[in-house]
Amino acid sequence: MGNTCKNQQEAAASCPASGKRQGDVPNDSLDMFLEQERLDGRMGRIRHKIIVLSGKGGVGKSTFAANLAVSLSMAGKKVGLLDVDIHGPSIPKMLKLDDSRIGATDGAIHPVDKGGMKVLSIGFLLRDRDDAVIWRGPMKANVIKQFLMDVEWGELDYLVIDSPPGTGDEPLSVCQLLKNPDGAVVVTTPQDVAVADVRKSINFCRQLEIPVLGVVENMSGFVCPKCGELTQIFKTGGGELMAKEMKVPFLGRIPVDPAIGEACDSGNPFIYYSKTETAKAFERAIEPILALSERDENL
Predict the structure, then answer these.
(1) Is 176 left (phi over 0), alpha (psi -120 to 50) or beta?
(2) How many distinct structural domains can be found in the chain?
(3) CB 143 within 8 A of CB 86
(4) For residue 44, how far is the Cα from the chain centroid?
(5) Per residue in 24-71, pLDDT tens?
(6) pTM of the entire structure?
(7) Is 19 within a domain?
(8) Is residue 226 part of a domain?
(9) Bridge partner residues of 188 (DSSP)
(10) Domain span at residue 203?
């Protein structure tokens, strides 16, 4: 060969056998640059990106995300709803889209339409709704990147992103890829065991410099549909106290309502038709988020 390479780095830079010369741009760097350009182009057409988080499962996070997206759409906004819960996607069921499938043309993925709202979930890609997705972190991160980079979201006022519980691969990937989301809404229930985990979600946002738009205390009491009396099934005020201690906004309490469970199972968003105290609480909770677009209009 006539030339001894001292180490792998020197070989990559100067050995003829490597096929590279000093000053060449590596193919992987070029691919990363082009991917970032495509991602920035897609996300640049979306005015506000809202991530819905919770450190605890079973607190109604997906229910809140779905009703938040529907409420914004009912307010006349152009909305997308992205479900990045890879292992337990529930948005298709909640919106009665179980049998829907996404399409693709010219290298772009087309989300499912729900009354003018654009919806995407890994659930639309499963051959059977009972199939288990058994993936490690890198696979999940790549799919989430594709959901953001290769989906024809178009011009949107809001993209609501429903993340799985915890502070693992999915929310981390979303936050890193978005770079500058407007912020996160953190959902909890009043019990100490839930609030303790939700604190971790707030610290997660702070470490990644993601603004916390507010905390929602879900399942906070039960309002009797017949007499209107409020009964504290669990306890109340845990989420509000935690928000105060951690110096983040409190968006309000949402009572338990049997109609919410029925709405989720039937695929009819609760906020569509209900005028109960729970529905009014939902509306109050989204007011600061809706104010983001109203602020744009006044600029």
Answers:
(1) alpha
(2) 1
(3) yes
(4) 17
(5) 556 778 888 889 999 999 999 999 999 999 988 989 999 999 989 999
(6) 0.85
(7) no
(8) yes
(9) 217
(10) 49-298
